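Problem statement: downstream parser choked on a complex file, so we are re-checking the raw output for the ketopantoate run. The parser issue turned out to be on our end (a line-ending mismatch), but while we're here, posting the original submission so the record is complete.
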Amino acid sequence: MEIAVIGGGSIGLLFSYYLGRKNRVTVYTRTEGQSEAIRANGIHLLKKGCDFRAGVNAAPLEKWTGREELTILAVKQYQLQSVLNSVAERMPGDASLMFLQNGMGHVKWLSELPVKNIYIGSVEHGAMAIGDHSVSHNGIGVTRVAVYKGEAGPIKHFTEMELVDFPVEMADDFRSVLIGKLVVNAVINPLTAAFQVRNGELLDNPFFYEIFKDLFSEVAMALRLEDKEKHFANIVSVCRKTSANSSSMLKDIEAGRQTEIDGILGYILEEAEGQNIDTPIIRTYFRHIKGKEFQRGASI
Ligand SMILES: NC(=O)C1=CN([C@@H]2O[C@H](COP(=O)(O)OP(=O)(O)OC[C@H]3O[C@@H](n4cnc5c(N)ncnc54)[C@H](OP(=O)(O)O)[C@@H]3O)[C@@H](O)[C@H]2O)C=CC1
Ligand SMILES: CC(C)(CO)C(=O)C(=O)O
């Protein structure tokens, strides 16, 4: 299968490495320099002390034409609009796009995209890009994919690939895929970024764990979660599996970049306000992260 991956960051390189083992993958990067490095070296995956390599193609985003059978968008949520704007004129009507972003903020834009197939994916791996063409696979998790619009055909292949350490599951309902992941990110990401700890420490430090539970209770109330125990067990399991990982929000804060807080706690705050539910813990951590972005001069 021919697959395009837009964005050569942590998740873009991780997906390109695994998919590149059984497919023809092209990574579309922001710079020609990164494309050259990927073409010359392939993608190196660092896992459990070993260094694995997969050969893939790469080109700057200006070269994307949408001719691949599937295009995976692996940029941050706040980078999506500008990527979509820059490829809008080249977007073939029969394109198949898969969105892997955390949070829910981008979902409202998808219905307006004039393409045949749109898929939503939620990623529970922990990954960190190291330089232009290497990525460290810090936590192995499941990728869940669901149809947002169109046919399931182009992503069926995904679930059938059976790549070691890269499990993919097909889900029926994209909303439950996104909500499941939103709940995970709403608890793990802001707390790890606020306390500046790796994911596992939220469970191992009994004081942080109390806050973890309190924040989850408010998130569950604001989103009116039906199966609270199942969601809670899932957050704990993701936290455990990615215990050595620094969450993407912590990495953003450390690098002085904008975070995805608006599409995560910002979205949940709006949901709560719409129902007149007071959520002081969510509000506090939302402001805490916005304050950190402000302090470090990230664009807000
Ligand atoms: N990292 C993780 O462990 C996890 C991440 N996620 C989610 O996956 C998504 C991607 O995150 P992640 O990979 O960590 O983010 P990164 O910041 O590591 O990667 C984003 C990549 O997109 C590239 N990019 C941005 N704008 C453009 C553009 N206009 N043209 C081409 N490339 C562009 C960036 O390039 P440049 O650096 O040159 O700007 C960067 O390489 C996020 O929504 C995140 O929440 C989900 C689960 C785990
Ligand atoms: C799964 C988890 C929590 C891994 O760190 C993540 O999605 C993130 O960091 O954004």
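For whoever reads this later: The pocket of NDP (ligand 1) is lined by residues 6-12, 29-30, 61, 74-77, 79, 82-83, 100-102, 123, 125-127, 129, 248, 260 (CB under 6 Å).
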